[in-house]
């Protein structure tokens, strides 16, 4: 039943609904507004003459580093690259910070990072390494540049919600990760990502977010919260792989997946760009002015989230 699905999904949003994120949002509010930089996007967009520098970072799950170090290294690059492209930018360079118990213990981690950096053609230019640590840990930061932004703050009522995704992959055996990257041709990976800055620069889209932790549902909540909007999400319209239960798919992290908020008259042109790369791009809902996220399935609908009663990350568009 739809109500049971909602209960499960709300429990899964715990990874995004953290008190420390909300404390940071409140504590840093004045500093980001004074610089004209909004917190809540996939990257910090720093005005730089006639463009934007994009700055982002990710810390990797310690359990993934221990159980699948090569894949952890690959993902550390991939997720940062995705953040840059999701904002309409192109990556410039990466730096990493590694803690390990010995030099030998990070060989697979480094191999995964190198493989991804080569595939996405983003150089690793420095960072910090400590091979005398009591534990293994990895964080990676990335710098990029965008001429025009795709941002989490630009969704508007009556926009159509589009999911663009690559379904040519498979689930990781131990984590909710849909891997359509490590076995793909590198040139294809780069061409698929290049669609995002093309959308921004052509004016076809100005609001987007990459589908990451929390899956499609969590990403939608973050996009609506920063834009001070709500949405109706049609669960039956969400593209997913054959044989994968909807409940599992809604909270999965795809290696290539973006949620776009698009003006109605531009939807077909946006979809056409993804279709030329054999990527799926489907309309899955609509943005509304009311600050509520409604899940719809056939003739049934249910209130999933009400931002008037419950914040998620605490990031939102400043009121004028």
Q: Can you walk me through this structure?
A:
The structure is a single chain. With 320 residues, the protein is α+β, with helices and mostly antiparallel strands. It has helices at residues 2-12, 19-35, 62-67, 69-86, 107-120, 186-202, 215-227, 246-250, 267-275; strands at 44-48, 51-59, 90-99, 124-130, 137-146, 160-165, 170-171, 177-179, 207-210, 230-234, 253-254, 257-262, 280-288, 292-297, 300-306. A seven-stranded mixed β-sheet has the order 9-12-6-13-10-14-15. Strands 1-2-5-3-4 form a five-stranded mixed β-sheet, with helices on one face. It has a three-stranded mixed β-sheet with strand order 7-8-11, with no helix packed on it. The longest helix is centred in the N-terminal third of the chain and has 18 residues, at 69-86. The protein is globular and about 55 Å long.
Q: What fraction strand? A: 25-35%
- Compressed to H and E, one letter per element, the order equals HHEEHHEHEEEEEHEHEHEEHEEE
Q: Strands across the major sheet, in which order?
A: 9-12-6-13-10-14-15
Oligomeric form: single chain
Number of helices: 9
Work out the number of β strands.
Answer: 15
Radius of gyration: 19 Å
Q: Provide the residue-averaged pLDDT.
A: 91
